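Memo to structure team: turn this sequence into structure tokens by end of day. - J.P.
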Amino acid sequence: MTRKIADCRKYPSVSNCSLTISGEEEEVVRAATEHAVSVHEHTDSPELREQVRASLEDEKVPA
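Reply from structure team:
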């Protein structure tokens, strides 16, 4: 299974957040959503979770 990554540095924020989360897709969606709610003051919703899921990238494996 390909690990996924969510990287806050790719999205502008007031706090200039530098958090990166990686793991299996469902783990990353859950953790990134919790982070978006607790740090960036988003509202947890199915739409937010889908936005998070759509923004995930495959984690690059070092050669």
